[in-house]
Amino acid sequence: MKLRIQVIACMVSFAFLLAVPSALAQANKLIGVWKITENKLPPTGEREDTLTIAHQFPNLWMFTKKHYSHVEDPGWFGKQRPDLPEEPTAKQMEAAYSRFIANSGTYEVKGSTIIFLPMVSKDPNETNAPVPTSLDFKFEGDSLIIYLRQPGISGPIERIFTRLE
Predict the structure, then answer these.
(1) Residues near 121 by beta carbon (within 8 Å), at least 6 away in sequence
(2) How much is the average pLDDT of 152-156?
(3) Could you tell me the residue range of the domain that residue 66 belongs to?
(4) If 0-12 CB within 10 Å is exposed, 13-18 middle and 19+ buried, where does residue 127 land?
(5) For the domain that residue 93 is a member of, what is the CATH number?
(6) Which residues contact 137 (CB under 8 A, 6 or more apart)?
(7) Residue 118 CB: number of other CB atoms within 10 A?
(8) φ and ψ of 128, to 5 deg
(9) What is the per-residue pLDDT across 33-86, written as a single tens digit (0 to 9) for each?
(10) How many domains does the chain have?
(11) Which residues are CB-contacts of 78 (< 8 A; sequence separation ≥ 6)?
C-alpha cells in the first residue's frame, strides 16, 4: 500500500514538473511588444464565412515577465479617434477619449489563458472588477492570437498580433 502511494505521488510530481515548464515557456514567449494587425470575425446569421479585417488603428501591447500595458484606439465603427481642436467642447472630448483603451498591471499565464490584473486603467471599472479579464491565446508561427469573446457573437474574435520587438 505504501509503495502504491509513493508511486502515485511520484507520478503526480512528474506531471507537475512537466506542466510548469510548459506554462513558463508560454509566458516567456509573450514577453515583448506586440501590435494587432488583423481581426478575424466569426460567421454570423448574415455571413457564413469568417471575415478577416486588417487592423489599421493604433495599438500597442507590451509584456514583461510580470507586467503588461495595453493602449489602443480600437477603431470602433471603422473610424479613428477624431483630432481635438485647441479648445475642445465636452462633446468633442468625449468623442476623442471615450473610445480610447488604456490599462496596465500584472498578468498571469495559466496554460493557454492570460489573466489580466489591471493596476491602472482609463476605465475605473476595470481596476475594480470583481473578476479579472481572462483571454485564451496561442502562438501560430511568429504570430500571437488572442481570442476575444463578445456577447451576442457566436464564436470568438481572433485578434492576430505581430511582434514589434
Answers:
(1) 102, 103, 104, 105, 127
(2) 81
(3) 2-163
(4) middle
(5) 2.40.128.280
(6) 30, 112, 113, 114, 144, 145, 146, 147
(7) 23
(8) -105, 10
(9) 999 999 998 887 777 788 888 888 899 999 999 999 999 988 766 777 888 999
(10) 1
(11) none
15-19, 56-60, 113-117: least confident range: 15-19
| Residue 52 CA: distances (Å) to CA of 1, 34, 120, 128, 156 | 58, 19, 32, 33, 13
The C-alpha cell 499565464 sits at: 109
Average pLDDT over every residue of 91-96? 89
| Inter-CA distances, 161 with 17, 34, 94, Å | 30, 6, 28
